[in-house]
Amino acid sequence: MAVTLHEDMDEVEKEPVRPKVTDSKGILQKNREFLDFFWDIAKPEREIRLKAIEGLIAYLKKIDKSDELKYALQRLVDGLAHGREAARCGYSVALAQLLSVFEDIGLQTILDQIKGKHNLQTVNKKQVRNVAFGNFFGVLALSQSTRLAKEPQVLLECVRLLQKISLYREHLQDLPRKTMVDLLSETPQEVFEEVLLGALQTDLTAALSSPEHLELLLVAMQKFPDVLKPKKLKKLLGSTSVINSENIPKLVQVLKMAAQSMKKERLLPAVAGDLLQLSLREGSFQLFWSEAVINGLLKDQTGPSHYLCFRLLGSALPHLSTEQLQNVLTGEVMKQYGEHVLSAQLPDRFKFTPEMDEYVSAFLQGCPDSDRQLAVVVGFSLLTNQGHPVIPTHWKVVEFLGPEALKSYVGWLKDMFLEPKMEVCLDFVTRRQKEKQESEAVNVERIFRLRKWIVPRLTSIVDNNQVKKDEDLVMDIARFIFCHAFFVIKKKSTDIPETENVPSVPLDEKSRAVVVNAFFGLLHHLNHLPVLGEPTKVETLNKKPVLGVKADGCMWLSSLVQYADLLLGKPKCLQCHLSFTPEQRKAWDGMIQSVEALQKKAKKSQSPEVSAFQQLFLLVGMNLFKSPQESVELIHDIQSCVAKVQAKKARKKKASTEDDGEEPHWVEVLVEILLSLLSQPSRLIRSICKTVFSRVCPHVTQNAISAILDVLDPTKDSEESGVVVTDEKDEPRKEKGKEEATAKGEDQEEDGDESDSSDDDEEEDEAMEDEVDPNFRLELMKVLQGSGAVATEEDNSDDEELDDEAMMKLDSSIASLFAEQKKKIQAKKEEKERLRKEKTLVRDFKIKVLDLVEIFLLRQSTSPLVLGMIEPLLAVIESGMSSETEQQEQDFLRKAADIFRNQLCRGKQYCKNVEDRQAELHDMLEKLLSRAQKLSDSSISLFYFSASLYLLKVLRGGVQAQTDSGDTSEEGKTAEIVEVGGMGNVDVERVTARYTDALVSFMTRRNSPLTGAMFMDLFSRFPTLCKNLLDTAVEYITGGAREHQQGQACAVVLKGLQSNEVQKMVAGDRWTGICQTTVDKVTETLGKGFEVKNKMILEKMTKALELSLFLVKTIHHQNLAVDLQPLRNTLQSLNKNEAFQKSGHMEDTYWGVMKMFGVQKPKLVKMKKAEEEVEKGPTTKAKKKGFLPETKKRKHSKKPVVLEEKIVGEKGKPAASPAPAGDGEQGKKKKRKRNKNRKRKHSEGAEAPAQSPAKKTKKKAAKQGAAKS
Questions:
Q1: Mind listing the pLDDT tens digit for each residue in 1080-1131?
Q2: Environment class of residue 1232 by beta-carbon count within 10 Å: exposed (0-12), middle (13-18) or buried (19+)?
Q3: Could you tell me which residues belong to the region Disordered (predicted)?
Q4: pLDDT tens digit string along 645-662?
Q5: For residue range 432-491, what is the model confidence (pLDDT) as tens digits?
Q6: pLDDT, average across residues 161-186
Q7: What is the pLDDT of residues 284-296, one digit of tens each?
Q8: 801: which DSSP letter?
Q9: pLDDT higher for 346 or 1227?
Q10: DSSP 8-state symbol, 210
Q11: C-alpha distances in angstroms, 788 versus 517, 810, 813, 894?
């Protein structure tokens, strides 16, 4: 029987005709709607389940039929033991809702039905788990129906059922006990006393034996205190209270069991939390904490017990008084927590710190008492390891401190910095630290470590914008850090609050260096600090968010400079750590005067230059305390710049012209100052330099740009650039990130770090020693030959042993020689490391200089100075591509490439006025194009090609190409004038010639760095050039050097033909001629043979078919006189060629083209059996096989492709063609082979695998069916 595959039919087999079923009354449809609810209730999606439950309730309310309600209850009870968890939950919720809505349904009836259906005694062992869950979810449904408290007898039976299924702990774990606790919490006191108390007598008596029983007792005591009085507890437990000295050992064991049970969940067990609450209610917290927690759980060496102690500590915080908090936070639990934090710094260790932070954050958010908040924060801050607190300096929980508590905490930090009370700290020392520490320097080192933590702790309060602080607090912190960073207090002063307390232990150089670095980091934060409080003047001046200023509009930096000037004016009270010389003091005073003058000008008229100079003065003035000599010179240079600006504004033409002839422009001097500042590794300097440069961008000259680009020039050394890159011993940027990790993990990982560093040193030493120095070898041979240890060529005597004296002399000579060689190797290593550091600093400096380039391109993208940046940036990118692949080098290259691509080439604003530089720009364009063709890397060539397109855009200017769409007959001088006018200042002939050479180079060279995407970009952006290059691109559809070039030629031509501007420019006969030529070329390239099959050929065919599709569409749409018959014949011949195999996209494109010719994609025909075999009929009775549903039938992925000629008949009907020759016979042969092999194996004695019982029963049933038939 032959079966054909149609559009709306699958495979059809002959079946007996069934009578048509009619549903005139809609009964089947209603039942189907009813049954679908139960299917949806069992689905895994929660939304679908809830929607189905609502629909079921509404349906049962609507019809009001007892039969369907009875069926629904039976179906829901049966589903409680479903194998899937989601289905069980769905059926349980549905049953609960049904019982709560239909209150006439008896709960006892449902409970009996649950017990009868899910009987644990008669069930099969394999179904025990599901049946146990069925009982549990049944009780859960009854409890959620909110009717259980009204029927005490049913409640009692539910409790007994839960007690019964609680024995199946391997399946249900502690779910039954938790449900019992929930039932107790919802049960009235009368029902509990009369009904449940007797049933729970056994469980309550065994309360101290397991966490579940104790949890039941604790919930009952909390819920029914009048029932479980001390007398009753005496009968149950033997004591009038749960927490007492007699029960402590049992409670500890119960808590250990609870900790082990919650090991995976990592949560506080409910029984532990209830015990804590009970101890607080009964007033036995001290006994519980000291005996059960510290002397019980904490003495256990297992991790879960310790983590339970930490969780009890965190959960107890909201319930303790201030005295209790101080007692708990200075105990053994906190010390153990500190050791855990220290050891958890190692990799692959569980870290409890995030969980503790959540406890502390929740306490601070919910506690309005500032004293208790301060007690908790101070308690954690006093937990120290050799003086260094274990909590991080950027502790996020400080965000939730109230204003009063925050001020008190800042005051406490300042007091601890001035008078370190090490005896107050809860300090601990690890075993390894005890072995290494020295008693003499322990206290001094601890004070240093504590101060090293306090200063970043203070700065982090300013840095964190989430902390609720005011300007007075921020200024207080800044003044404190500045005063102790650069001054030494001699005596008190009423004007300066910081002089009231003198440090009890003077700051050493190491501590002062930490404070200095922290202060400049604080300045960086203040420079980016948003306005605190309610701004008044700032809102009126600028609606944008202003950073680095106070509410009154004054800069934070300016306020600190005024404070510094105040301190300098009190030499009797304070002494500067680095005393100023008269010259430095004069420079400071001059800076103050200049800033005041600039502030007066700023009040009169807002000017970017004034604010830039003011900010730069303040920065260099603050830097005067750190590096006085360099800052003095910078202050003088800035003052000269300001003087020049003022002279220019006063229009002193003679003086300005004379100065311009002798001295450089003020912007050039300012740029040199910025470059010298950027050479210092400081985030503050980098951000201020960027701000200053952005404000003086409109005044930048060519010499200033050249100074910036000279730094980036890869052909020039750092010495030629005139900028010295400096390095600081303690960089705040590096130290800030490493500070906490080193403080916490240095003691635990010290040995590991030493071993790692020693291994690295050994590897370097081995590498250096492998490179044997020939001079060293000669010297060694001379020493050996001189002592007679090695015979020379002239000496033919045998080797003689040396005496002891000669051996000693030889040993000393060799030792001295090797010591000398070791010094040389060490010197080489140090030199190599020095060069590496210097190279890193230079690269970091260049990355900062790129910031200035990016700012200029953003602010002054229309300036002609931008054109001078093209070639230097390309040189930087090219040198970076060919250099080493270090991470810093990659960052530098990525930044330079991003600036060039996004800010320069793709910028929306560009220079449009270049009338006086046309020749120069054309020469540059030719140079860039020629360089792009000579490179070997396509990625670098792309940047050069993009730069040429940018120059084209600049030369074209803002003039858009104009085309005369009305008159298509004139193509003479008028059209040429219009095209040239559309390209602005571009020399079209010259540029066309250069891009034609580039296109020819790309199409004829086998390894050209140019790509097709470059010319596609050119064609899409410049239609005039596209029109001129289109004929050349068409020629290379068949004339390309390789298949890749030919395919790219198709893509480029397609991009050009799709342009509407190009179609308007070449409208008329020329457009028809281009289409005809392109069709001929595409026909020729499609007609080539396909003996070689590779990726390039397939790519070319795909591009050619895409171009063909566009051509055929356009020609048909515009009714062009183009002969398409050769193309159609070629495409039809391709389908007949067996070597032509179409991929998915290629096949769609191919049939898209053929559809334009009126040829539809053929429908596939599948032959199931040959007609001859159907007509013959079976000679013997075949065994009747079982019915296979449609969903189980195998879908063949490889279907035979039938050619077009064999599908379409004379009348357009599909003709049934026979299967390909050999296919059916081949399949039969394979089956015969398999049968023969099986028989051969059995005949040779191979043991056949044992058949499963299911297969045996199937075979037996098949035989019986065959016998009956």
A1: 999 998 887 655 467 888 889 899 999 999 999 999 999 999 999 999 999 8
A2: exposed
A3: 717-775, 1170-1269
A4: 877 766 544 444 444 455
A5: 777 666 555 578 889 999 999 999 999 999 999 899 899 999 999 999 999 999 999 988
A6: 79
A7: 999 999 999 999 9
A8: -
A9: 346
A10: -
A11: 62, 9, 13, 63
CB atoms within 10 A of CB 1147: 13
Most confident residue range from 1104-1113, 1137-1146, 1163-1172 = 1104-1113
Specify the pLDDT at position 64.
72
**Phi/psi of residue 508, nearest 5 degrees:** -85, 180
Return the structure tokens found at 914.
């270049």
Read off the amino acid at residue 275: L
Cα torsion angle, 472, 474, 477, 481, sign: negative
Helix/strand/coil for 383: strand
Residue 199 pLDDT: 79
1146: CB partners within 8 A, 6+ apart? 1098, 1101, 1102, 1105
| Cβ contact 947:954 at 8 Å | no
Q: Which of 422, 579, 558 is nearest to 490 (CA)?
A: 579
Give the Cα separation of 238 and 227 in Å (integer): 16
What mean pLDDT value characterizes the chain?
79
Rounded CA separation 1210/1215 (Å): 9
Sequence letter at residue 722: G
Q: Which helix (H) or strand (E) holds 1058?
A: none
DSSP string, 590-642: HHHHHHHHHHHHHHHS--HHHHHHHHHHHHHHHHTTT-HHHHHHHHHHHHHHH
Confidence of residue 991 (pLDDT cuts 50, 70, 90): very high
Rg (CA), the chain: 45
Tell me what the mean pLDDT of segment 601-621 comes to: 86
Cα 900 to its chain centre, rounded Å, is 26
Tokens of 1258: 């199937």
Rounded CA separation 977/993 (Å): 18
In whole angstroms, how far apart are CA 721 and each of 75, 677, 716? Answer: 87, 14, 7
Report DSSP letters for 1172-1202, one per residue.
Answer: HHHHH--SSPPPPPPP--GGGSPPPS-PPPP
Determine which helix (DSSP H) or strand (DSSP E) holds 185, and give its type and residue range.
Answer: helix 175-186
Give me the DSSP letters along 400-420. Answer: G--HHHHHHHHHHHHHHHHS-
On whether the CB atoms of residues 703 and 865 are closer than 8 A, the answer is no
Q: Among 172-181, 215-224, 832-841, which is the least confidently predicted range?
A: 172-181
Q: Measure Cα distances from 804 to 785, 801, 810, 814, 1144 in Å.
A: 17, 10, 10, 15, 89
DSSP string covering 513-570:
HHHHHHHHHHHHHHHTPBPPS--SHHHHH-SSPPBSB-TTS-BHHHHHHHHHHHHHT-
What's CA 1133's distance to the chain center, in Å? 53
* Parallel, antiparallel or unpaired: strands 383-385 and 426-428: parallel
Does residue 762 surpass a pLDDT of 50? Answer: no
The three-class DSSP label of residue 171 is helix
Which residue in 391, 683, 632 sits closest to 517, CA to CA?
683
Q: How far apart are alpha carbons 486 and 841 in whole angstroms?
A: 27
Lowest mean pLDDT among 27-36, 381-390, 761-770, 904-913: 761-770
Dihedral of CA atoms 720, 722, 726, 732 in degrees, nearest 10, equals -120
Separation of alpha carbons 681 and 515, rounded Å = 17
C-alpha span between 827 and 537 (Å, rounded): 61
In sequence order, the β-bridge partners of residue 547 are: 530
Q: Which helix (H) or strand (E) holds 979?
A: helix 973-982
